[in-house]
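Input record (one chain):
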Amino acid sequence: MTTETPWGDAPSVLRMILGKQLEELRTRAGLTYEEAGQAIGVSHSTIRRMEAAKVARLRPAEVEKLLHTYGVRDQQEIDTFLKSVREASKRGWWHTYRDVMPDWFAAYLSLEQAALQIRAYEAQFVHGLLQTEEYARALLGAGNPHAPSEATERRVALRMRRQELLCREAPPRLWVVMDETVLRWPVGGAEVMRAQIDHLIELNRLPHVTVQVMPFGNGPHPAMRAGAFHLFRFRAAELPDIVYLSGLVGAVYLDKGDDVLVYREALDRLGAQSAPARKTEALLGAIRKEL
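The corresponding structure, as predicted from the sequence alone:
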């Protein structure tokens, strides 16, 4: 059953965990989707969507009926579960930026805020958690050339707010491998790039941040056809590792074991082929001198 857990600002991740727990309880009770749905007066597809966290919110009354249907009798366990259900319905802090943020990106922010570890490969630009404000402004302006300046500033503010998680008491472990191309792109000009590299050097000194660079000279590598991707790992045993792939009009989230394994192995090989983390600072410094 659910325990008291400091979920912070990641309600949709908590909804995923509750869905997994409901699935486990239903399976343990030996009930099908249809039987569970009939017991509380909803369709079998609703039960499937609840377990897959594909409903906008879990309804406490329906969940309580399900818990009784699944044989949960301890009132304290039921109350604790329902408390988590109500917590999962709360909106994350990023909801205030919904005017400049696509709906599908809210799921990414929920994963990012709740992750124990974030691993990423970046092929074209610096990871959002590692960007300076000026770099982010130049990048977001180029990516949204027709957006009003006010909208761009809102997007920059959102990106800076995301970075606060690296400074919290128990930050996630962030490990980013980036192509040398990332550091050669003149985003915002030489001055902005020099400041960005200085920022990377500073962040790489933090105990929970690792930055590696894949030099041009290494040639082809395991992720050359994949483009950028992120891999999230969580504290909760109910949640599998999740891979995030982004596009111009949406995103894909992968959690099937075989799919995730492909990306995890690619990251392992990238890390082994890239410049060792201890040499990152020297490599960044050398690139900075060329700007």
